[in-house]
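Blinded run. Sample ID left blank on purpose so nobody reads anything into the name before looking at the predicted structure. Input follows.
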Amino acid sequence: MLTCIIRYHIDPTKREQFTRYAQNWGQAIPRCGADLIGYFAPHEGSSTLAYGIYNIESLAAYEAYRARLSDDPLGRENYAFAQSERFLLREDRAFLKCVSTPHGAAR
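Blinded prediction complete.
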């Protein structure tokens, strides 16, 4: 299992647009095959950093998921919304593997 962490740099004056974007992904991402952990908007501290986090089985599964997402009507709408509203200033993805499991195991 891989965890994809998307770090967004957002326009702090367009947080409402980011919230709408995140809520749309909250519908489309699970429907297209990834296990969405959530989207996180700035609350305290930085006003420009936001995150999207989801789990996916493998990089091959990620490629298939991305194809489904680009064919999904809400996915296409959300991509277009982000481009027209220009609230995403930068987007970085990292794929991480959890190596600390099992958590809380006795020594």
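Unblinding after everyone has recorded impressions. Residues 10 and 88 are 5 Å apart (CA to CA).
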